[in-house]
Give the backbone structure.
Amino acid sequence: MPDAPATVDSRPVGRPTPIHPRLARAEHVSAVTAAQHQGQSQREAIAAVGVPRSTVRHWTRPAAAPAAPAALAAFIETPDGVQWRRTLVMAAHWCIGEVGGAGVRVVCQFLELSGLSAFVGASYGSHQAFQAELEQQIIACAAEQRAALAKDMPHRTLTIAEDETWQDGMRLVALDLSSGFILVEEVAEERSAAAWTRALTRGLDGLNVTVVQGTSDEAKGLLAHVQRDLGAHHSPDLFHLQQAVGQAMTLPLALAVAQAE
């Protein structure tokens, strides 16, 4: 049983307050303004758009201390201004967050320094959620485009580079050296030849390609994966070639440094 008696809320049940997106608000206000210019009264114009008169008055109430030029503030509240503002925010997230990789906090700083924070919320939480949704949309679009474009793709031969990355656990990564297109990027528990072959098979699914050459650090698993499983030629990467060539000189140089120390 509960330790305290249940309470009864005797307040009347109210209707939820409707939420009007910014574009809808701008369209309603624009329609009211156009109707008034045609000779209708404010009451008649507001009644035609189906929004309470108090709501429209709240939307059109001037700000106490405008943070931007009056002409710009007036334009921002029009339908074209709302669309323009959306385009700017999307461009900031795309160029700064996705292409530049600078992160959400730099987007927020841009909004503050540019003065757009007068019209767009610049809090980290709201833009972090926006960035996460944008990335999900990018992934979904990439999957759709890949499926659509792969149908008519002419056959290509690929030279791929493969290696593991360790930023947040082990990931197997493979890309086409000619285009830079990432074929594989997935978390894995092992880096055996079988694990590499399974990952690349999934990465090439639906693509009209043949892997003819692989480049890597010559780990045993990668060598078996490329030469045995794919039947392709394997070439070492440049770093390991340089390392092999330099081994003849590195030991004498290291001994000379040690003696000097």
